[in-house]
Amino acid sequence: MSEPLVLGIESSCDETGVGIVRGHELLANEVASSVDLHARFGGVVPEVASRAHLSALIPTLRRAAETAGVALDDVDGIAVTAGPGLMGALVVGVAAAKALASYLDKPLYGVNHLVGHVAVDLLDHGPLPTPALALLVSGGHTSLLHVEDIATTITELGSTIDDAAGEAYDKVARLLGLAYPGGPVIDRAAADGDPSAIAFPRGLTARHDLVKHRFGFSFSGLKTSVARWVEQRRVAGEEIPVADVAASFQEAVADVLTAKTIDAAEHLGVETILLGGGVAANSRLRALLEERATSAGFSVRRPRPALCTDNGAMIAAVGAEVMRAGLPPSALEFSADPGLPVSTVLV
Ligand code: KG4
Ligand code: ZN
Predict the structure, then answer these.
(1) Cα 184 to middle of ligand 2, angstroms
(2) Where do the structural domains in the chain lie, given as residue ranges?
(3) What is the pTM of this model?
(4) pLDDT tens, residue by residue, 177-225
């Protein structure tokens, strides 16, 4: 087959995404977000997200086909997020994809959302030299992945033992009285702050922690430390230097993530490091990884920030990889799996 034309549908959390790719070429990436509906709750409300997917999916699909200038009947395959994510949200995308695939008589691929965060970079930078190390940082996951073959062989080297990096951003934003989602807001606030103003802890970097958790992460202690620091100032009636807190917190996160990533890349002996997931949009993480990885002799790949957060193109990108690898489509009766492990690229 020449480069496969693939439609990708994403509905695992609060973004309804439909993307269309031809091999590594991005043709359309339409996203409808329900984030505004969740903002006042300070986090995603699953029931609200599911309903929003239901109303956004068909219009988003139409827009994507229009933008790409393709008729749905022309696609070679349909890929949909099978997991991980919120069950009620996943089910909307999976049901829509199954209906579309059976109506159009196209092969359907239920694929892994987390692999999508890695594969989306191929749309920006072409084929991934493997083996590679991927640092996956999203709202629900923080993992170091050994990518031997993006369509078939991905193993997790380590992950967070408590909060995900994005979750820490969201929680710290909340305690600073900033809007949800917290990542982009803290990123902006930090631009005016001093990253060395407050020495926040770097989780699981002490010598005794490294024995058991060399490639593991922990962000809940950092979040608690920020909360305590802020609370003490509040009780004393002092003003909170939001920009300094944001910058110091962000520095602690980026420091740990990049230090462990370089260590893992050296351990595996790979040449390429790839960054993926919503937190990969973070300006400090992008800069510090580039700086440390380059000086350690690795090449770094980071998708453009707009492709880091959830979207349908990343799912289409995985679809294109599994089709190119000649893998069989998913059985039409497959279920969404909220806990799908990252090693399962295709269900
Ligand atoms: O990958 P994603 O879109 O959704 C999940 O699969 O979870 O990631 C969302 C997370 C949120 O926690 C959000 O605060 C964070 O990514 N995020 C950021 C930035 N943009 C989004 N975190 C730090 N800096 C950013 N610029
Ligand atoms: Zn995601």
Answers:
(1) 15
(2) 5-120+311-324, 130-303
(3) 0.97
(4) 999 999 999 999 999 999 999 999 999 999 999 999 999 999 999 999 9
Between CA 347 and CA 336 the distance in angstroms is 9
The number of residues making up the chain comes to 347
Give the ligand whose atoms come closest to the C-alpha of residue 14: 1
Place of tokens 């006042």: 40
Which amino acid makes up residue 166?
G
The model's pLDDT over 113-136, given as tens digits with 9 standing for 90+, comes to 999 999 999 999 999 999 999 999
- In degrees, to the nearest 5, what angle opens at C-alpha 275 toward C-alphas 159 and 148? 75
What CATH number does the domain located at 130-303 have? Answer: 3.30.420.40
- Binding site membership of 170 for ligand 1 (Cβ less than 6 Å): yes
Is the CB of 180 within 6 Å of ligand 1? no
> Which CATH fold would you assign to the domain 5-120+311-324?
Nucleotidyltransferase; domain 5 (3.30.420)
Q: Which residues pair with 26 in a beta bridge?
A: 21
